[in-house]
Q: What sequence folds into this?
């Protein structure tokens, strides 16, 4: 199924560790191509941990894996997904407009989510 | 690239050597003034010109964390005053708070070759030293803030005066500073620890400490004298800017008990009247005291009309100014050491207080019996930019111009001062005293501020003009350490100035006391705090401690 | 001592070393260094990010010192090619600088001045909007030690230091005891405002969750309450926070003794940008009518603060600066790198210690891929791998001495652990600037 959600790129300690090892290495690429959902959103979309989903913004699209957010205290944010900054989130920043500030709208990306993808479809990426 | 050179036919003003306008040669070799040079040495014909030592500024805010914050937060200040580069010089931004290179070039254009940065917390020592390195042309040093130092407060509280002095010496070495600076002593603790309150009386108890501002003032004046620093404790008094504050200023000067002390931008501390009400002039009371007490020196801190920027370690003062006019405001607390406030400001002719401040500054200049101890400053950029110096010089040298300017000001304020009764006009020699010879002497810079044999060959040559403002605006020739770098008003070189510091001796045992204080209350490691000797190149100016 | 003939491991311990990974710039590291292997084996006091920083920056001697179009060349050849690219460009841009010493940053600005180039740091896509807030409304702020000594109220707004600045809370702000905070954590109230719960929310006493993009409204509501006004109920729908919670927050803020608002990209990168940061600065200014209150952006890279600082003292402006008229001009949106690239204006780029290919907006990356790029980096990155000229550099703090500016503008010295066979940024910039000067004097003589 397809649904539009708000993607908020962010940072994680794991990403920070991985970028020291090297941005061309698997650990970094994997951490920056995994999107986090709230469990309720995953259930509603029929997604399981490790499933592949397609994120589409404008003419750009990426295929990433998904996982549930680990939340230890109450968090009400439904319909918002999170992914660490990196080449994947960059690709979805289709608008270079900065509203005269130098800063593109980096934490507020509306993306269309398609998934879970069939194995062959995600391999094609 | 120092040259051998003979300056001929110029009128020389060199008050330290009692030369008052005589037409005589000035000979330069090896970066110094020398007795003579070979007859075939290159000459500068200074016919119709005035020759003086390079200017020396005893108190300007030109570098370091608060200056840089003031640059950063005022793009509007630079925008209409760009400073283009030349084949010899770097570009930059102008305005009231110019970029570092531009600051150096602009001071040099006025004929200044030495400038002292007036207030930096020791925690930012590396910062100010890096900026000073990037401040073109000038020799420079800086004063390190100690009047609100928590460790020193604790030593005082316990009455451990020997350790206090050792710690002061350690701090001067660690920060590579030139002298001790006090700013509104005791007030930072009120500001940071007691919900933005201030010190109002130098005998009140400082919040969280069992000491008074007077005790801090006395201890630091004594430490500077005991350590034999070339320039004594440099004091921004309590109650600055408040009506009736001249009493605090007098008390501060009395606290010196005959020992050397320098009161800075004293104009801002020469107000009569009742606190909270309009000020009146107390220039006479202040002048009388200084005239009678040769241990005290001061710089004026003249206010000049137009844009300024108030930048000060006196955070409560800045907060008061924000209530005068709700302009954008910066506050910056420095752990265990200082506060800081910055606010753009404008002195306006029609405003009573501003007109009065202008008049009080001039009164202080004109009433001083000893110009060697009442030297020129605008507390750049607090009273106005250093670019106003030429106009200020004209105000001092030209009585008619002064009266003409006064006529355009708030007349209620003029009526509260005696400025219009003061007919004195400064001579070239007196201008040379308040802009170079005096500050050099007060700073203990023996090779500066004069043109005697052995002096640094920092020399300025002005075209003599009837309009003194025009005359002092752009020097025709300026030399630094014997190198000609402004020739016919244009830059032809970019010599590198020195950074001057003191390094008084101290007992290393004091480090054992300071270290645990750092471990508990600072956010940097004790061993990383002192500026490494490899950080910047400095020149140590000798101290003469009491035996 | 590179010649180890004893056969014993050649170990050195560096005390009070500085970690330059994030803006905390912790200077209490104790590094154990294997000099034979040229790597750090222990990093006492380092956080998870710091450990990765120290352990992963060993020297890979198999990497070429310099490459042109991917082929190994001598350093001299690469400098010549870089100089030619920059001198012949009509609109060269210089970008990055935040992982470089202030000494190298000063050389970088000198190069921009000489080339009449555009220069910008990673600030423009980090806390650039915070700098604009500062320019608009000012800022009450502090050094981190004063937070440790005095702050009884700490607010983390739109930032997650537990992941991004792990020692901010443990070493500088929340946990330590201070001069007037004798019991450490117990004497402080910690509040987290964010669009999502994070590890930072967990260490806080209070977590306030806002709707994405509503920070300005919430900050303005707090200003209204601080100035004695009343709120309209629409605020609840706008922000997702109840009036009762907002009022409680406003009360807590104005009744503390010494409060601080830390904030991050959650304000600067979202709707409102510099309006958000301005609102936050103004809220803190307003709170000073009641108590002592300060703000502090949690800055990212080790010396991004130094880039702002050095640019400000040499040019008067903190980021987004253009020298093409022979003097510096500053205009966010015009001279900021994302905009220049998105408009397709630059015809050459020199990227110093930064990786825009991995984090710029897509249209900016597309243009960067079309023009010759010169890259300085100790590690292979998407940017270094596509660069026309790529220099492998030593790593600041680990191999290179110098100064960096912590997030609170405090300069911290570096104590390198071991020597690298690769040159520092500065060691490349100095001959590069010399060569640019020669080429420019030839071309101006020819004209």
A:
């Amino acid at each position: 199924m397809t649904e539009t959600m708000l993607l908020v790129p962010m940072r994680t300690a794991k990403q920070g560790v991985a970028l020291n090892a090297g941005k061309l290495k698997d650990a970094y690429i994997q951490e920056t191509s995994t999107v986090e959902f709230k469990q309720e959103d995953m259930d509603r979309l029929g997604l399981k941990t490790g499933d592949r989903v397609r994120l589409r913004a404008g003419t750009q699209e990426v295929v990433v894996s998904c996982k549930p957010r680990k939340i230890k205290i109450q968090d009400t944010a439904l319909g918002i997904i999170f992914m660490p900054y990196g080449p994947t989130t960059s690709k979805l920043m289709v608008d270079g407009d900065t509203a005269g500030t130098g800063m593109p709208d980096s934490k507020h990306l509306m993306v269309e989510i398609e998934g879970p993808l069939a194995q062959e479809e995600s391999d094609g990426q | 690239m120092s040259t051998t050179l003979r300056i001929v036919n110029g009128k020389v003003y060199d008050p330290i050597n009692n030369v008052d306008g005589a037409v005589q040669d000035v000979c330069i070799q090896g970066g110094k003034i020398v007795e003579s040079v070979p007859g075939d040495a290159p000459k500068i014909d200074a016919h119709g010109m005035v020759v003086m030592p390079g200017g020396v500024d005893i108190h300007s805010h030109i570098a370091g964390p608060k200056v840089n914050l003031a640059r950063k937060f005022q793009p509007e200040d630079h925008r209409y005053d760009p400073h283009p580069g030349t084949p010899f010089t770097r570009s930059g931004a102008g305005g009231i708070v110019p970029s570092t290179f531009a600051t150096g070039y602009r001071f040099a254009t006025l004929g200044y070759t030495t400038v002292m940065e007036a207030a930096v917390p020791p925690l930012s020592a590396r910062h100010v030293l890096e900026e000073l390195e990037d401040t073109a042309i000038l020799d420079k040093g800086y004063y390190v803030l100690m009047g609100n130092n928590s460790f020193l407060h604790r030593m005082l509280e316990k009455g451990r005066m020997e350790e206090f002095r050792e710690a002061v010496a350690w701090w001067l070495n660690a920060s590579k500073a030139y002298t001790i600076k006090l700013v509104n002593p005791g007030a930072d603790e009120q500001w940071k620890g007691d919900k933005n309150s201030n010190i109002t009386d130098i005998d009140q108890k400082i919040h969280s400490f069992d000491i008074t501002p007077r005790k801090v003032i006395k201890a630091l004046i004594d430490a500077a004298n005991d350590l034999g620093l070339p320039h004594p404790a440099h004091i921004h008094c309590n109650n600055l800017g408040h009506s009736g504050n001249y009493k605090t200023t007098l008390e501060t000067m009395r606290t010196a008990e005959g020992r050397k002390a320098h009161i800075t931008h004293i104009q801002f501390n020469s107000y009569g009247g009742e606190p909270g009400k309009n000020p009146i002039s107390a220039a006479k009371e202040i002048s009388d005291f200084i005239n009678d007490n040769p241990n005290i020196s001061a710089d004026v801190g003249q206010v000049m009309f137009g844009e300024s920027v108030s930048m000060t370690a006196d955070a409560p003062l800045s907060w008061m100014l924000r209530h005068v006019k709700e302009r954008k405001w910066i506050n910056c607390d420095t752990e265990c050491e200082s506060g800081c406030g910055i606010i753009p400001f404008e002195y306006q002719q029609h405003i009573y207080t501003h007109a009065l401040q202008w008049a009080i500054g001039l009164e202080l200049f004109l009433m001083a019996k000893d110009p060697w101890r009442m030297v020129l400053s605008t507390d750049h950029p607090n009273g106005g930019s250093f670019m106003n110096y030429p106009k200020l010089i004209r105000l001092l040298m030209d009585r008619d111009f002064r009266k003409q300017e006064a006529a355009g000001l708030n007349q209620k304020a003029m009526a509260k001062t005696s400025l219009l009764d003061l007919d004195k006009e400064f001579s070239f020699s007196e201008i040379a005293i308040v802009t170079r010879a005096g500050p050099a002497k007060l700073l203990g810079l023996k090779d500066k501020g004069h043109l005697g044999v052995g002096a640094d060959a920092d020399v300025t040559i002005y075209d003599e003009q009837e309009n003194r403002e025009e005359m002092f605006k752009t020097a025709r020739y300026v030399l630094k350490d014997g190198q000609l770098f402004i020739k016919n008003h244009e830059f032809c070189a970019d010599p590198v100035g020195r950074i001057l510091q003191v390094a008084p001796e101290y007992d290393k045992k004091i480090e054992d006391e300071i270290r645990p204080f750092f471990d508990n209350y600072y956010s940097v490691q004790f061993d990383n705090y002192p500026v490494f000797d490899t950080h910047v190149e400095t020149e140590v100016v000798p101290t003469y401690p009491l035996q | 001592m590179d010649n180890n003939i004893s056969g014993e491991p050649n170990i050195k311990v560096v005390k009070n070393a500085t970690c330059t990974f994030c803006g905390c710039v912790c200077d209490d590291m104790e590094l154990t260094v294997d000099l034979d292997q040229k790597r750090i084996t222990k990093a006492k006091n380092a956080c998870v990010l710091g450990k990765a920083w120290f352990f992963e920056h060993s020297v890979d001697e198999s990497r070429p010192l310099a490459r042109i179009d991917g082929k190994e060349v001598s350093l001299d050849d690469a400098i010549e090619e870089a100089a030619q690219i920059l001198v012949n460009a009509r609109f060269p841009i210089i970008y990055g600088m935040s992982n470089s010493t202030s000494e190298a940053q000063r050389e970088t600005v000198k190069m921009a001045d000489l080339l009449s180039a555009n220069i910008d740091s990673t600030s423009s896509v980090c806390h650039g909007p915070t700098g604009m807030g500062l320019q608009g409304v000012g800022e009450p702020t502090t050094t981190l030690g004063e937070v440790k000594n005095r702050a009884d109220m700490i607010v983390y707004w739109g930032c997650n230091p537990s992941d991004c600045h792990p020692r901010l809370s443990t070493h500088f702000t929340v946990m330590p005891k201070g001069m007037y905070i004798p019991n450490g954590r117990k004497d402080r109230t910690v509040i987290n405002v964010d669009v999502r719960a994070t590890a930072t929310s967990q260490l806080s006493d209070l977590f306030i969750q806002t709707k994405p993009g509503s920070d300005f409204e919430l900050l303005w509501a707090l200003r209204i309450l601080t100035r004695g006004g009343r709120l309209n109920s629409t605020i609840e729908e706008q922000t997702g926070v109840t009036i009762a919670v907002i009022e409680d927050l406003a009360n807590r803020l104005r009744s503390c003794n010494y409060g601080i608002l830390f904030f991050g990209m959650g304000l600067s990168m979202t709707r409102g940008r510099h309006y958000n940061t301005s609102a936050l600065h103004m809220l803190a200014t307003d709170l000073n009518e009641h108590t002592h209150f300060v703000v502090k952006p949690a800055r990212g890279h080790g010396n991004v603060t130094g880039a702002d600082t050095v640019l400000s003292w040499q040019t008067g402006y903190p980021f987004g600066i253009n020298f093409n008229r022979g003097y510096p001009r500053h205009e966010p949106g015009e001279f900021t790198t994302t905009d220049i690239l998105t408009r397709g204006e630059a015809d050459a780029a020199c990227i110093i210690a930064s990786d825009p290919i991995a984090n710029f907006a897509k249209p900016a990356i597309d243009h960067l891929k079309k023009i010759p790029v010169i890259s300085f980096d100790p590690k292979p990155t998407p940017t270094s791998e596509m660069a026309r000229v790529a220099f492998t550099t030593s790593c600041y703090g680990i191999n290179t001495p110098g100064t960096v500016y912590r997030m609170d503008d405090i300069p911290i010295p570096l104590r390198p652990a071991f020597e690298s066979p690769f040159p520092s940024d500065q060691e490349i910039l100095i001959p590069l600037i010399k060569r640019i000067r020669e080429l420019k004097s030839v071309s101006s003589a020819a004209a």
Residues 13-21 of chain A form the longest helix (9 residues).
